[in-house]
Amino acid sequence: EILVLLAVLHYVGSFPYTSRFASSRNAFALDANQASLSIVILAAVNAGLFITDHVHFQYNGMLLGLLLLSISCISNGQDLLGSFLFAVLVNMKHLYLSLAPAYFVYLLRHHCISPHPRCWRTGSNVSSVMMRFATLGVVVLSVFGVSLVPFYVAGGLPCLKQIFQRLFPFGRGLCHAYWAPNVWVAYNLVDKALLKVLGTRGNNVVSQGSMTGGLVGDQLHVWLPTVTPGLTILLSLLAMAPALVMVWSASRGPRSRLEFIHLIAYCSLASFLFGYHVHEKAVLNATLPMLLLAPLSQKHAEAYLFLCNVGHTQLLPLLFRQEEWALRMLVCLLHLSLSGSLLPIGKATGSSLTRAVSFLYQVGLYVLPEVLEILQPLILPHLPFLPLLFRSTYCLPGILISSYSILMLLRDETRSSQRRCD
């Protein structure tokens, strides 16, 4: 996580947003020094990274560090450097390609094309737009060239074709063996329920465990249409569309840099919800960018805390040994407690009913799946996948709510930009 901390330090050192916009934030907004300290501490003790990298032993920290460093550069106006880093990131882990629409739309609108004329004194003619676009394209394509041209020289097009087939193994199925809490959890659950109630249809015979056994292979639905990779890409783009339109329509200015971070967090959740063969750890692509925004206001802090509660608890089954149970719960609760003490949390907002439902739901994230994990071997030993299924299904509404909350925060930012220009 050294690269994550370096990226965070670069961000807080080069973009002191809280002091610049303090007058437009609520009374609970932190000053620049408090915000910087909060971001650095919470990045250093992030529960999601601790679970996935330090115990489950994966390597997400370096990739997420590159993502945050790219975001930081663009937030500081270094668009070409940020684009270069994102291209490097995609070549290191192609799954970050899902964020390409966010980068493309933002950079095309705010780097290449002339912004709102009332917000920028100098207009842009076609030649200057094309020049900036060409420069941006050269920066990005040069990274892909350095990465892929040696393979083409060594083996020609067949070699490149084999690489792309390995990078996008659509035969692995719609869902990962561990069902990440996205819309396909509900889709699979409905199809399983229909199969249980109505039985098979015609000659369509599918193994009862084909979606839950953890085996690699295509997952065919019986009563519902089988979901193709192309459909998941289309739905992901449609889910991103509202945020992309907001950012495209927004005026350029200091706030547009904050809009970009909102956009990345939202598009990460959109691809998480509708993507093909999504891994549960992909939620970190949204939680860490939201950390950069959390000190801005109480609404941002609440959105970050809620997303972390949902995102981190859905990672808990990665630590499945009994001796790890206390550790995984302690890590999440300590991160929650530390976040609540460092971030601008005042009196809870919303109606009393909304607050009560939200509180009970978040308590349930920690209690209900754990109780089921204890009881399932005793009362339902023939359903070993049930705890995972319940946890993913229970976390799904939380991911949906987080997506909506971030979209509304982005809407508020774009409106603030328009008012500033008007």
From TrEMBL:
It is a multi-pass membrane protein. It is an enzyme of class 2 (transferase). Keywords: Endoplasmic reticulum, Glycosyltransferase, Membrane, Transferase, Transmembrane, Transmembrane helix. InterPro entries: Glyco_trans_ALG6/ALG8. GO terms for molecular function: dolichyl pyrophosphate Glc1Man9GlcNAc2 alpha-1,3-glucosyltransferase activity. The chain crosses the membrane at residues 34-52, 84-108, 129-153, 230-248, 260-279, 388-410. Its main location: endoplasmic reticulum. Belongs to the ALG6/ALG8 glucosyltransferase family. This is Alpha-1,3-glucosyltransferase. It comes from Guillardia theta.
